[in-house]
Amino acid sequence: MFEYLPIEQEIKKSQEEYYNVLSQCDKEGLSTKFVEYLLGKIKLSLAELVGTQRDHFTDLERLNYFLDQIDIADFTRKDYLRMFPKISTATATRDLRKGVEEGILTRKGNDRLASYQKK
Question: Would you state the pLDDT for residue 57?
Fold first, then answer.
């Protein structure tokens, strides 16, 4: 999978940071900061790759992806739409309703003021 990630592009976008991290590692005699830097670039590359694939998710794939990415306890349909700006409000509502029906989510409130939580 890493063969297809544009990691080099991410590094090229931040060449100054790349050289600064290498310099710090050289001074400290440790590679920890470089490993952290590189893992960050891998994460960005993966996010970019997944971002191009997000448009083809099914409702449950989209919902599970969203739940894997968020780190908040409560969220709204608006939060969901921020991650998937190309879907309609009606699609977001259907996805979230399905999450409740499948027992993945709990819902508080009604209509556009509803909030959701992972179970």
Answer: 77
